[in-house]
Amino acid sequence: MSERLEGLDEELEQESAKAEGTITSFDEIKKKRKPFHYWTVNGEDHKMKLTTGMITKLENKYRTNVMNLITASDIPPLSVMLTIVQAALAPWEHGTTLDRVSGLYDKWLEEGGSQSKLLSHVILPTLAVSGFFTATQAESLMRELEENADLM
Fold first, then answer.
1. Distance spanning both ends of the chain, measured CA to CA
2. What is the pLDDT of residues 127-138, one digit of tens each?
C-alpha cells in the first residue's frame, strides 16, 4: 500500500474536480482589501500602507496599539498622525523622513487639507487597507467617510 498520509493534496484535488463549474476558490467569494491607499499631494500620488514591521515600530515607540493612538481622544496630536503617515509611506518611498512628511503635509494644507481631513482622508483609509478592519468594516468606514466629506 503506497498511500500518502501527509498533506491534503489528493483530497483537495478531488474536491476541486467535484466543484467544476462552481466557485473554484475561497478567494472568489471573500471580499478583497484594496492593496494601498493613495494620498495625493501636489498632483503626486503617494502609496500608503502600514506593514507589520511598521505597526510594531509605532507600538513600541508609543507603548500602545495604533488604534489607541487614533481613538484615545477627539483627534490625535498632529505629531502622532505625521509619524503614522511616515510609517505608512516609508516602505514604499525609501528614505522618508519626518521632515519630508511635514513638507508634504504643508503642501497638502495649501491645497485645502486640514488636520481633521488628515485623520479622515489619509490615516483612517490607510488603516483600512492595512488590515485594522475587516473588509466589511473597511467598506462601511470608507462609505461613511465619503458621505461625511462635506462636513470635514
1. 70
2. 989 988 777 776
